[in-house]
Amino acid sequence: MVQELTDYKCPACGKPMIKRVGRFGPFFGCSGYPECKTIQAADRKTGEPLPPKPPPKPTGLTCPKCGKKELVVRSGKRGEFLSCLGYPRCRMTLPADKLPEFLDLKTKNQWPPPDIMAKAKAGKKAAGADAASAGAEPTAAASGKSAKILPQGAAGARAKPRARPVKPL
Q1: Where are the domains of the chain?
Q2: Is residue 63 within 8 Å of 53, Cβ to Cβ?
Q3: 83-140: per-residue pLDDT in tens?
């Protein structure tokens, strides 16, 4: 691995940063590692350190999907968007350009609107269906095999895989 000491100082401890190359590209790591684990992404073209991502901005709106956390404004590669602070458990996202409209609805005590509630409920149903089908056996038509007839009560039950015999040397 390529390592080179730089003039950049660690924002956490003040020690010099070391430019390194990892599997996701170049980055700067603190020379005080393992005591200081600060890292900064580096621009692939210029090699300069990239500024850290800004923290999400609170909106004051509750998430219509989970109802527990707040919606925040985040920035991604396609621009700003609203998402639940409970990510990754709650994956509710909305367009950020509608934030003034959403805040207006909140002042009128009409938050969340019915169309967004329908989207949130549809997301819950789809997530539940995906979770239920994740452990299910694929259908015979999808797998290209003939259907097996299982004894009653054994639907979806899987047999333990057989151990392969060990070949002698």
Answers
A1: 3-41, 57-130
A2: no
A3: 999 988 998 999 999 999 999 999 999 888 888 888 777 766 665 555 455 555 544 4
Task: Tally Cβ neighbours within 10 Å of residue 49.
Answer: 19
Per DSSP, 121 falls in state H
Cα distances from 98 to residues 12, 58, 82, 114, 115, in angstroms, run 37, 15, 9, 15, 13
DSSP letter at 49?
B
Answer yes or no: are the C-beta atoms of 41 and 49 closer than 8 Å: yes
Q: Which overall architecture, per CATH, does domain 57-130 show? A: 2-Layer Sandwich (3.30)
Reported as a single tens digit per residue, the pLDDT across 40-53 is 999 888 888 888 78
Helix (H, G, I), strand (E, B) or coil at 90: coil
